[in-house]
Every structure is written in structure tokens, then in C-alpha cells.
Amino acid sequence: MKAVHYEGAFKVSVKEVELLKIQHLDDLIIKVTTAAICGSDLHMYQCRTVAEEGSVFGHENIGIVAEIGPGVTLLKQGDRIVLPFNVADSRYRNWEEGGTAFCTGVNPGFAGGAYGYVTMGPYQGGQAQFLRVPFADFNVLKLPPVKEHEGDFALLADIFPIGWHGLTLAGFQLRDTVVVFGAGPVGLMEAYNGIFRGVSKAFAMDTVPERLKAAQKIGCVPIDFKKSVDAAGYQAVESSGRKEQPNIILDQLIMAMRATGGLGIPGLYVPADPGALYEKSKKGQILISFSKLFEKNRQLRDLIIAGKAKPSFVVSHNINIDDAPEAYEKLDQRIDGYTKVLIHPNGLF
């Protein structure tokens, strides 16, 4: 089968790899119809993590059940499903307390597992024609069988529920004012969730024209903050644009917040960053926990089905798998309008 193959810093290729097989009774194999390229994949692509060469990325996946293990009871061949990117087994304390993102049973020595992401367990990513899904009855969300809303449903794997979660972390209440620092796909989902949850006003801050235009289209007030900082998360830089300052966004969030306001920080601060300028940053000493990310994905799915939400407005390009290396390069450089890319490993769905 074809898969997007990590070759080292700033290089991926499409290669033939071994076809995946059922390994456990509760596994299934899906034929991948869509797998997104995420900004988190770019962190590995840029060699800002300890990802190993030969890795297959892709934690935002949607597909059709192709093969099923004998222990799977709630699914059948031909079911259309989306996979929240966290892998969990539904058997341990963190799961019982609602912390499915921190399952201790799927990745020994680390709290949490995910598809195709560094240090998150032995689970190949979905930027490939097929994908193995462990603990299948628990780790999938069934979708309607018709070929509608593919791009919208794909975003249920990660950024749409993260948008909801970020607002929840901030203690959002009806008619609050929301300011989003960084209007990439995740930031736009923060603003979008705020708008249909009843925000009074939403501001979106970024430097990329396409992102600011997308924010304006959904009703945000766009703010170009080139004179302040560029990017959000651990790769933020100071206003000169020459020096990384990973904590600057956190500082500016605190300064922008009103007294008794709230912060929601789903931006990625990695536990180890070998490419960082500062020794503390290399050790991951700015680390923000994610908590539970997918408590609302069923409700968000139903909003899509009902025509109340269409998160795929953030998608800029739909591509075949052979075009993935070029898409990675352009997405990394933020050129030619590349903001959010969906790969269709088995052809356009």
C-alpha cells in the first residue's frame, strides 16, 4: 500500500509499505478516505521532535471499515467512521475519570497514545491507504453511510472538538468576548465554536493574509499582529521576527485578558524540542496539558449532519497521496494559499 514516508528534516516521500494486518482481537483495518496534514505533523517534518525516519504521520483520519477482528462487536465491514486522534483502551483510571487523552494502557511509560505521532505509541498514522485501529469499539465514531460532509467529518478527528475544548478551558460563557491568538486551523475552530456558542465578539490575530480573510468570513474581527509576534505555540517569535520566544504568546494572552477572564491554551507546547534555542525549551519546560479533547465530538458530528456547522471552511486543498510531498513543503512555507490540506490516499472521495 502507499504511505507518506518521513525521510528526515523537511523531506517526505510516497512509498510502498507493507499492508497492515489485524494484530489483536479488537482491531480493525480501515480503507482511508481522508487524512489531514496537521500543523503538528509539520513539527515532526521540521525535525523539531525526535520522530524517527520511516515514520508514517497522520492523526486526523476518516475511512471505511475493510477488515474486522473477531472481538469487535459494534462495527461491521463497510461502516464509515472517523477516528479521534487519541488512542485509548477504556480500561484504566484516567479513562474512568474522563481523561481519555491520558490513557496509561496503550503506550507503556507515557500517558496517552495517538496515531502517527512521535512518542505516542506504536500506532502508524493514516496518511496511507490503510490504517489499523486498536480497541476499535471504543476508538471510533460512526458516521452516516452516505458520501456527504467528508471534509467536515474529517475535522472531527482533531481540530473541531479542540476548538470547543479550548473555549471550555477558558470558562467561556454566553456573550463573552473571545480573542484568538493564531488564526490557523485550530485558532479558526476556536473562533468558529465561539460564534455558534453565542460569543459577543470574536477577534482573530495572525499575520497570514489567507487566515485573516477566513476569520473575517466567519464573522471575526481580523487583526494583523506583525508588529507583535508571529505564530502561536512553542515556535512563536518576538516582534523583530528573528528570535524564537516560546512563552511570548502566553505572556500576551495574560496581558490581553480582562480581570477574572479565562485562558484556553490548546496550542502545542512539546515535551522535548531538540531544535529550540534555549536549553529549558529543549527539555520541554513550557508544557501545557490537553486534558480531555473529545467529549463533544458526537454532538459536533450531529451539528454537521443537521447543517448547523461546516468546519471544512478551513480546508484549502484536497489532494491525492502522490501530491503529499509538495503539499508538506508548501504548507510548511505557508505559500500558494496552503492552510489546511486533506489527503485522499485512495482517490478523491
UniProtKB/TrEMBL annotation:
Pfam families hit by this protein: ADH_N
Top-level taxon of origin: Eukaryota
SUPFAM superfamilies (UniProt xref): GroES-like, NAD(P)-binding Rossmann-fold domains
Domain named Alcohol dehydrogenase-like N-terminal: residues: 26-144
One annotated GO molecular function: zinc ion binding
UniProt keywords, alphabetically: Metal-binding, NAD, Oxidoreductase, Zinc
InterPro entries: ADH-like_N, ADH_Zn_CS, GroES-like_sf, NAD(P)-bd_dom_sf
Cofactor: Zn(2+)
Family: Belongs to the zinc-containing alcohol dehydrogenase family.
PANTHER family listed in its UniProt record: GLUTATHIONE-INDEPENDENT FORMALDEHYDE DEHYDROGENASE, ZINC-TYPE ALCOHOL DEHYDROGENASE-LIKE
Protein name: S-glutathione dehydrogenase
Annotated organism of origin: Amniculicola lignicola CBS 123094
Organism classification: Eukaryota, Fungi, Dikarya, Ascomycota, Pezizomycotina
